[in-house]
Target: Anaphase-promoting complex subunit 4 WD40 domain-containing protein
Amino acid sequence: MYDFLYDLPHTRFAINALCFSQDSRVLASGDDNGYVRLFDFPLGKESCTLRVATAVTSLLWHPNKSDVIFIGGARGIVTVMNLHAEARGFSLRTGVNAPVDTLAYDACNECLAVGVGTDIVLFNHPEDPWTFGSNIPPPPLASVDANRVLLPLPRALNFSDDGRSLIAVYFQHGIVSWQIKSLQPEWTIWPKSSRIWSISGAACFSADGKTVIVSNLFDGFDCYSIGNGEHLANLPTPIMHNVPLPSLFIEGGKSILCGSSCGYTLLYSGNMNTVLQVLRHGEHDIIQALVCLQSHSDLNSADPSEKAYCENEAKFIATASSEADLDNYVRIWRTSASGLNVVWDLGRENLSELQERQF
Model:
């Protein structure tokens, strides 16, 4: 189970992204006003505030450099920020005037993938300076009728096969694996949907890259096998607002955390058939940013208060509310000593009953 630990200082700007540094010592949040706030973790003290020119739409820490963070903006620019360098930041321009919705980094080949508009732009960084690599073209457009074209918008990216392939989850064009060298599609998974057209609002990949969870903007989340495209499960979540919702594999895939637009997040079991816990937020709050920290046991701080937070190899979750001009917050949760209890079994109740439950 997870217990509420504390809220970080509130802001009136919608929080769009959260991420932990690779050394587990810093939590970053990005908001609609272009602020990136850095908090020392686990104490939650704000250590630094950065500012970019547009709304922050995505964040990613460099996997090998704990002082480098990638900041995706609303107008197609990625700011590469080095927290300890004299000249802190510089911009990577994609040439697309659209939000950077997703970022992925391949540490094997030092390549950054940027999902922006309908494009996926690759930047190479074998050594300074960064160079433009290539532009993965969008998959063929799908038309509902003669008057409406559905744009293929990448919502999540994940490198696979030692960086030789890039898997992209598109808003209305399925899940496509691209071969980096040829820029050709290898395979496509068309998500199951109760609507006429398959929709993926947001997505996350398991650590081993074998499973993907997509927000379907209809009744919650759908899980798919990357290997064969099989639909593994549906994770129901009441949809109060038609917005993309995040999901997250945590505890090595033993649990799945799902965002929501109804004021609480659901923690599912890794086998996808049980709700383990309901994490309550403000009534009707939209939770569109999630991040987890598997363990803080590697910290060797002499600070006794920090050690108290991290005893027994504690795990942490950070969730954030995302509503413009309201009182938004980042909420920190910590594993408790009590064991997990089954809150809701998918075999006993359906979505309509879940929507009626008062958690």
Notes: Helices lie at 304-310, 351-356. The first strand starts at residue 2 and ends at 7. The longest helix spans residues 304-310.
